[in-house]
């Protein structure tokens, strides 16, 4: 895909990036949901991804997390292709990447502390006693008290479940943190707290953070880079400081949340629009 001129600042142009996505194509049957997506970030850099519903944002994060393989293209962490589950990729990507799924994806039957430290228990990094202590510590970071550790997901509010998902995503101090709508459903005070925490983690551990968000204020002001997706493609990607000079009608419409513009509400498959 040829990006518009105003993507000259696309971080994909950086040399030797820590995380690089090259020409990623992902299809489900005949439906191409990622169409030649390229992006890159260095260690410690942060990026917000915005775009209308069904733009492919969640699928992109899942490809980065290794949940989905790619039809074409690559996701490289320090040159190793996780999209193909490259055999030479001995250090498992799960040890390097933490992800908050849009619907949290918590295990209903497990208590919260086991959800939070699931991977660390599974890979033998922590004993169950240590895992429980670590879970309580992580829950504290996201504003949940120790009592919540022994509850089950169904006992928590939607916002509390979201925070458990965030605690799980950061449990193994990932080098890459992928967050699919971390503040959706949270009140403004808590959103602020969570975004501050994400910023602190990125700075302290040089974590590379990619967050999908529907909060345009957060997208504009909290992240180093902004990427706008639509219909499986990157329509604009650049530095936060360059947003105001972008002159990109898709980006402008998305940031304003306007119903007028090139983005229209679409049905399941590309090309069919509810609103012309
Ligand atoms: N497992 C799957 N099988 C088939 N199609 C899928 C699958 N996962 C996603 N899709 C399709 O991929 C497209 C992009 O979905 P995705 O979840 O990435 O959208 P999104 O940008 O995250 O939207 P939203 O903002 O609503 O969360 C949609 O058309 C969706 O139906
Ligand atoms: Mg999504």
Textual characterization of the structure:
The chain has 276 residues and is of the alpha/beta class. The chain has a single domain, classed as Rossmann fold (3-Layer(aba) Sandwich). 29% of the residues lie in helices and 22% in strands. Helix 5 (128-141) crosses helix 6 (158-170). The radius of gyration is 19 Å and the shape is globular. Magnesium ion is lined by residues 57-58, 102, 180.
Outline:
This protein is an alpha/beta fold and 276 residues long. Helix content is 29%, strand content 22%. Helix 5 packs across helix 6 (158-170).
What descriptors fit this protein?
276 residues; alpha/beta; Rossmann fold; four-stranded antiparallel β-sheet; globular; disordered N terminus; disordered C terminus; binds adenosine-5'-triphosphate; binds magnesium ion; ATP-binding; nucleotide-binding; transport; ABC_transporter-like_ATP-bd; Organic solvent ABC transporter
| Outline type | globular
Q: What class do helices, strands and sheet pairing give? A: alpha/beta
CATH architecture: 3-Layer(aba) Sandwich
How is the CATH topology named? Answer: Rossmann fold
